[in-house]
Design goal:
The complex is a heterodimer of chains A (241) and B (493). By secondary structure, chain A is mainly alpha-helical. Chain A has a domain of 128 residues: Cytochrome Bc1 Complex, Chain D, domain 2 (Orthogonal Bundle). Helix content of chain A is 37%, strand content 4%. Chain A is built from eleven helices and four strands; from the N terminus they run ααααααααβββααβα. In chain A, strands 1-4 form a two-stranded parallel sheet. Chain A has a two-stranded antiparallel ribbon with strand order 2-3. In chain A, α5 packs across α9 and α9 crosses α10. Chain A is elongated, with a radius of gyration of 35 Å. In chain B, α2 runs antiparallel to α3. The longest helix of chain B has 48 residues. Chain B has a single domain, classed as Cytochrome C Oxidase, Chain A (Up-down Bundle). The two termini of chain B are 17 Å apart. Chain B is mainly α. Classes of the chains: A mainly alpha (241), B mainly alpha (493). At the A-B interface, α1, α2 and α3 of A face α1, α6, α7, α8 and α9 of B.
């Protein structure tokens, strides 16, 4: 608008007082930003970037678990790709391998044992034979002389009982791993089987070889969901969401 | 006092008159928006008190269905966001844009008032509908679905003249610093509002994605509407009052564009680990943290600008509100980052800390900046000065203490709730136990909203007196403190 030539008057002074005392609009300056700010912002970007990566589930529309790696499937029951991820035998082998670290101290990482001290597991008839005897040995321990693969062993103190320290699931995983490693092949041992033995036998002392004779060739009855000698056909993967 | 020696007197007079004319041209719509907004804010804070009390003591005021927590809480938030937030923001946007562009509001004043009236009627109907139990149960969009086209049209009635002023303005160097935030808010709000409403109300069978879209909407409105208006006001008023130019045009530019680029990507991390494709929440989480960059740039710029000028905060009501509002911006950014990152978000998910973010953004940051703007703008529109220093001071301190209490308490409550929910020791407990455990925090929330209610009661009375033209007749501003007063006249002449 065009300003009147003589706008000034006392009244206008008061009316426009607020406007008159205003400071001018100032153009911004170009002060430099401190260097530490740059590093701070880089740090923020790094933290932000770490929210991506595996958390994105491989940018797939089918993966809703931020912790599932691309292609690994969703480990939750019924999750996407559940069929591949949920094979109980593979799962037991994987978990048993890490659980075996408890056993490896004596029986060695290669399952070969130590001659004269600790019997081998690889190719051992005690391992690949009846599941009932194997479960009982680990559950309650074993002492006294024993002959494995033609060699005699009599370790002082014998083997301790692991049943108290491990859950039946952990025990089953380790036994499945032992029965299917280093050339061994055997049926899977499930949590239910271990639990069945636990419920039947509550002894607190270690077994002797002689005491286990009745169980030498006995298998604990139960479903074998997967792996060698599976009784049930592999469960159909749940319908993909 | 702003006379620079080189400017001839007549030019200055012309400039003063031009600005006075601009103020006069936007007077009606801006005062209408501020006054109605202040009424809604009053109502919203009262509903906030009531909702918090009902959460602790469900029998309070009887078991009438209209005032159950489930209806009061959405009514409280909707009144805060649409009744107060958007209206006050539009008023500030209109005034700042008119002043920055040097354009008067030429025509369509009656259209703006009409749109404002429709906006208020629609919100009234919508909030009554929530209290009657007709809520859509979509967070921040609880009002029945017929309201959104009306609100959208009303908003566009205001956004159009603001964008037009920008288009016609002479744009000198540095013009953009506060203006682009205002202009951005004009375009971003309709975009977010249309997208969310069309998706949630018109597309069938969204399923879980609907919840994600809603979370995106809430973050969009906060980050691309409330935050830009708050920053725009801060960038305008801080140099205006301190007389100190914005420290860095480059930082301002970077801060704006990073916000513009990142603001629309976040929100879905609210459902991290939930039934949405993982990448959606991963992007939301990454962006929620990345948003600390625009926060840091703006914060740094304000810090460099006000360095050594903090004494003015004691004197000027506008600067005090804007300054503390601007301080809450980094706080809101940090809370958003905490809620967003997988690391901490897994604990804070679905807890009160999300309420903390909403309150710190909408009240702590946005509203404080807007209060500052209102304390500056209204004397220019009503032709009189603020009546009482005490009312302003009480408004400020009760607001600051109230909002800080809510934010801190909700954050701590969220941390505790999340830790309890994730703790295997608590997995056999009923959910009710967790609700009972957080009672103490909700009590503090009720007290804090009561403080804020009190502060806004004083603000409302003060504003109404000003709008009625009953303010002080003086040519000196109402200042909070006289030590740093460089005016010849004492404030209470």
């Amino acid at each position: 608008m065009s300003a009147p030539a003589h706008p000034d008057s006392t009244d206008l002074d008061r009316l426009h007082a607020a406007v008159k005392r205003e400071k001018e609009d100032l153009a911004p300056e170009s002060q430099p930003a401190p260097l530490w700010a740059t590093f701070l912002l880089m740090l923020i970007a790094i933290i932000a970037g770490s929210q991506l990566g595996p958390m994105t589930g491989g940018w797939s529309f089918d993966v809703s678990n931020p912790f599932a790696l691309a292609g690994g499937g969703d480990p939750r029951p019924g999750g996407a790709g559940a069929g591949a991820a949920m094979d109980p035998f593979q799962m037991a082998m994987k978990k048993g391998a890490s659980g075996y670290s408890v056993c490896g101290g004596c029986h060695q990482g290669n399952g070969g044992g130590l001659p004269g001290q600790f019997p081998p597991l690889a190719g051992s008839e005690y391992v690949t034979g009846g599941t009932e005897r194997l479960i009982r040995i680990v559950q309650h321990g074993l002492t006294g002389p024993i002959t494995v693969k033609g060699q005699g062993f009599n370790t002082p103190g014998g083997m301790q009982a692991f049943g108290g320290a491990m859950s039946s699931q952990d025990l089953a995983n380790v036994l499945t791993f032992v029965r299917n490693s280093w050339g061994n092949e055997g049926t899977m041992i499930t949590k239910e089987m271990v639990q069945k033995v636990r419920d039947e036998e509550k002894r607190t002392t270690q077994w002797t070889d002689a005491g286990l004779k009745p169980f030498a060739d006995k298998n604990v009855p139960g479903e074998i969901p997967a792996g060698p000698g599976a009784t049930a056909a592999a469960a159909a993967p749940p319908a993909a969401k | 006092m702003q006379t620079s020696p080189s400017t001839p007197d007549t030019d200055l007079q012309a400039d003063n008159l031009r600005r006075a004319a601009i103020d006069k041209s936007v007077r009606g719509p801006v005062l209408f928006l501020f006054t109605n907004g202040a009424f809604w804010l009053m109502l919203s804070t009262l509903l906030g008190v009531l909702a918090a009390i009902k959460l602790v003591e469900p029998e309070f005021l009887g078991d009438c269905q209209y005032i159950t927590y489930g209806r009061l809480q959405p009514a409280h938030i909707n009144a805060l966001v649409y009744g107060w937030g958007v209206q006050a923001a539009l008023g500030v946007m209109l005034w700042i844009m008119a002043r920055r562009s040097g354009q008067e509001l030429k025509s369509g004043k009656s259209l703006l008032i009409t749109a404002g009236v429709f906006w208020n009627i629609t919100i009234t109907v919508g909030i009554l509908a929530i209290l009657m139990g007709k809520s859509t149960s979509i967070e921040w969009l609880e009002m029945p679905k017929f309201v959104w086209p009306v609100l959208l049209i009303c908003f566009l009635c205001f956004a159009w003249p603001i964008a037009r002023m920008f288009g016609r303005a002479f744009r000198p160097e540095g013009f953009m610093v506060s203006t682009w935030y205002i202009l951005g808010a004009c375009f971003w709000f309709p975009w977010i509002f249309i997208t969310a409403n069309v998706a949630l109300h018109c597309l069938p069978g969204l399923g879980a994605l609907g919840a994600g879209i809603d979370a995106w909407y809430i973050h969009g409105v906060i980050l691309l509407f409330f935050v830009p208006v708050g920053i725009g006001a801060a960038y305008y008023f801080i140099p205006k009052i301190t007389g100190q130019p914005i420290a860095s045009a480059q930082l301002a530019s970077a801060g704006f564009w990073t916000l513009a680029i990142l603001g629309g990507w976040t929100g879905m991390q609210k459902y991290m680990g939930g039934p949405l494709p993982a990448w959606m929440s991963a992007i939301g989480a990454a962006t929620g943290v990345l948003l600390l960059i625009p926060v840091g740039l703006v914060g740094l710029n304000h810090h460099l600008t006000t360095l050594g000028k903090h004494s003015a905060v004691a004197a000027s009501p506008t600067l005090r509100f804007v300054f503390f509002g601007a301080l809450f911006y980094p706080v809101s950014g940090l809370i958003l980052a905490l809620n967003s990152a997988f690391w901490t978000g897994a604990g804070l998910q679905f807890t009160q800390s999300w309420y903390s973010f909403q309150v710190v953004s909408v009240y702590g940051f946005f509203s404080m900046c807007v209060f500052g703007a209102i304390y500056y703008i209204v004397p220019r529109l009503s032709g009189c000065e603020w009546l009482s220093v005490r009312l302003i001071r009480n408004h400020f301190w009760f607001s600051v203490y109230g909002v800080s209490t809510i934010v801190i308490m909700s954050l701590v409550a969220g941390w505790q709730q999340g830790a309890d929910l994730n703790n295997p020791e608590h997995w056999d407990q009923t959910f009710m136990n967790h609700v009972v455990n957080s009672r103490a925090y909700v009590v503090s929330r009720a007290v804090a909203w009561a403080l804020i209610s009190f502060s806004n009661f004083m603000f409302l009375i003060h504003l109404l007196l000003m709008v009625a033209g009953l303010g002080r007749r003086s040519s000196a501003p109402t200042l909070l403190h006289h030590e740093h007063d460089d005016h010849a006249l004492p404030a209470h002449a």
